[in-house]
Amino acid sequence: MSVKIKNDELWGMGIYELLPDGNILGRWNNNLVPGTTGLHLEIARKIKGNAEEFRGNYTVTWIAGNGVSIQGVLEIRTVRIGNVESELELIWIEDGKIIFRGTGVRIGPNQFAMIYWQDDIPELKSPLRRQL
Predict the structure, then answer these.
(1) pLDDT per residue over 4-59, tens digit each?
(2) Which of 44, 57, 107, 126 shows a CA-CA span of 20 to 30 A to 20?
């Protein structure tokens, strides 16, 4: 299945690292950021959950493509198949509204790679969930 995305529909990719204090440092980019050759930073401070795992709730701050600082909540959930953590589900919330969704896979003990999209692109779903 291929998904056609309109030119103004946001999607992006990133690498996230779990820091020793349980917080996350994210490096990301998306298709709508001007000059898409650079990486942008996102800081997520854990507010709920075990400091030794990605799963939990975070207060999150990032700089949008227009230079404005955005604050919100990042929820990271674990999707399991049997006894294996197969995928991470990410949800970004601003002012009580879901604005982005994403899915990630671990690429090391303290890192995961993720893709994300604006919440109002109904055709995009987690690849794993499509298979279930």
Answers:
(1) 555 667 889 999 999 999 999 999 988 877 665 667 889 999 998 788 889 899 99
(2) 126
